[in-house]
Amino acid sequence: MTSPMFEKIALVGIGLIGSSLARVIRREGLAGHVAISTRSAATLKRAEELGLGDSYTTDAKEAVHNADLVIVSVPVGSSGAVAEEIAPALKKGAILTDVGSTKASVIAQMQPHVPDGVHFIPGHPLAGTEKSGPDAGFADLFDNRWCIFTPLPGTDPDALERLSEFWRRCGANIDTMDPQHHDMTLAIVSHLPHIIAYNIVGTADDLESVTKTEVIKYSASGFRDFTRLAASDPTMWRDVCLHNKDAILEMLARFSEDLAFLQRAIRWGDGDKLFDLFTRTRAVRRSIIEAGQDIDVPDFGRQAVEHPSKN
Ligand code: NAP
User: Mind listing the domains of the chain with CATH numbers?
Assistant: First the structure.
């Protein structure tokens, strides 16, 4: 039996991401002790029932005490308050990281509270589902997904390598980039698709000429695929929109321009333009499959893949 990578890991926040980490940490034997903390007694009780860790508390300071690795997995708008709360209890030499979907804002919120001697390395695993809470996690969530670090100038290379190795052992591939670049990239690959999905589902929900029963009944024609994204956690996505505002507005502006182009092609019966665009986008789907980021079965593999809700 190999020795664990970290004596003690503290997970602050035990929802989809925190509980997936808890499960893979146990499966891979990455920690001698996993301390779990979450804001509410109800979520904590559920984490304990699921046996996700070794100790449980609603006091984040208690959880991070003596931890070698602290992973904050809370909505991005709460990361500053959490950092402020845990800062006095962080051990010298500990690695502090997060999993937030926006990076510049999380850094601005957390960094001022990080004590000297603690290695703060912001991170973001690009893996998730539309589910939330401790029941939603599963151990192979991060398999062959990317985890992006946005290290601050002066980051200790050994700490960065240790954290990278931890994520590799959780199944992820590692990339590093600056926070602004991360936020711009994620605005197009993640934030915009969610906003578009929220918008289209909202539009359908508002329609009066088509009844709600028809929207549901005929949803397999395409609408259904948007509803998965639009079922994502409202708190998380409210925070993402508010905390990556500039990059999202930039991408929305480009999107609106391109939509106007499409609208014009439809209005003027310009079939060539439509055909060219639809051919180009098909190639994008092929590249995603070739990169191993989706599987090439009909219907997004809905019937083919089953995610166990517990490991
Ligand atoms: P989740 O399932 O909703 O769990 C959220 C956790 O944060 C719970 O433990 C919750 O505690 C706690 N929390 C909520 N509000 C809080 C507050 N104001 N102060 C302190 N703790 C609070 O969320 P998740 O999907 O794991 O997301 C966590 C982070 O991962 C977010 O920053 C998100 O951007 C990022 N992320 C999510 C995904 C995804 O697909 N879901 C993917 C990559 C990264 P209680 O339940 O006890 O209230």
Answer: 6-177 (3.40.50.720), 181-290 (1.10.3660.10)
